[in-house]
Amino acid sequence: MSTQQQAQKAEQLRKLHHGPRILTLPNAWDVASARVVEELGYPAIATTSAGVAFALGYPDGQQISRDEMLDMVSRIANAVRVPVTADMEAGYGTTVDDMADTAKAIVAAGAVGLNLEDVTGPDASSHVDSNLQVEKIRTIRKVSASLGVSLVINARTDIYLMPIGPEETRFERTVQRLRAYREAGADCLFAPGLRDADTIAKLVKALDAPLNILVNAGSPSLKELEKMGVARASTGSAAMRATLGLLRRVGKELLDTGTYNSGLDGAIPFAEVNKLLEPRNR
Question: Which of 6, 104, 108, 248 has its CA 20 to 30 A from that of 226?
């Protein structure tokens, strides 16, 4: 893929955040899952960092290396025709220079966007200073643009997901951070952990910018989110974990009863998977 083609994919992904329909992304964790998503007609592929880490034998939380994460991203980007955006956790580094290296590596991998979160560890003590996070975003924007591929940045705050700080101030602090990230160059703003419809609608209005919501059981429907003005909805690691849940049910049934009714009949036929993964011209 040439730099020009990659840049065109980045602009294609950027435009998908501005309607007319909500950009829905069932996150992929390997080439097979990415090709299944693409075959269904989704206009872009988003990876799940937790799903990739789990598949490669790591717990979530930046335990996997940047190189290992981007090796899988590269495999996916080279296997599909649609734009690929990579979940890069907190960027696999703590400094602005680290973010410059990450931006270069993402472009080299063939991806055209990234998620960037503002925590580097498992608790609130790892919440990155907002001024530093702004500089990280600015650096990714500047460096990727200098390479000819202006990466689509989905800037995330974990204030609700972790959660961080007093409940009564979470909304105001989320707005403050996400507005700063938008001003720094983020294309989309991500507030995982939000499920309450009224709060989501309120956040859409307060930000006046594309908003990504993490969806799972208990979240408003896509139709409801679209009506609120949410620009992007993603499943995170849920689909990958659901697949593991299916494997566990199948395995338990084999052990307990010796029967095969826990989902094997829903498997994609072997020939279809084989054909799906055949090399093809891009």
Answer: 6
CATH superfamily of 3-239: Phosphoenolpyruvate-binding domains (3.20.20.60)
Both structure tokens of 157: 């705050």
pLDDT of residue 263: 81
Q: What is the mean pLDDT of residues 21-40?
A: 98
Q: Which of 86, 82, 80, 83 is nearest to 35 (CA)?
A: 80
- Rounded to 5°, the CA angle 152-222-54 comes to 60
pTM (global) more than 0.70: yes
Question: How is the chain split into domains, by residue range?
Answer: 3-239
- pLDDT at position 225, please? 98
> Under DSSP, is residue 100 helix (H, G, I), strand (E, B) or coil?
helix
Side-by-side strand order, sheet with 84-87:
23-25, 232-234, 211-214, 188-190, 152-156, 113-116, 84-87, 45-46
Point out which residues pair with 21 in neighbouring strands: none
For residues 50 and 59, the answer to whether their CB atoms sit within 8 Å is no
Determine the Cα–Cα distance for residues 101 and 3; give it in Å rounded to an integer. Answer: 18
Cα dihedral 39/44/49/50 (nearest 10) = -50
Q: Are 253 and 236 in contact (CB under 8 A)?
A: no
Owner of token pair 């499943």: 235
State the Cα–Cα distance between residues 29 and 237, nearest whole angstrom.
8
Residue 114 banded pLDDT, cuts 50, 70, 90: very high
User: Which residues does 157 contact at the CB level (< 8 Å), separation at least 6?
Assistant: 117, 118, 174, 177, 178, 181, 190, 191
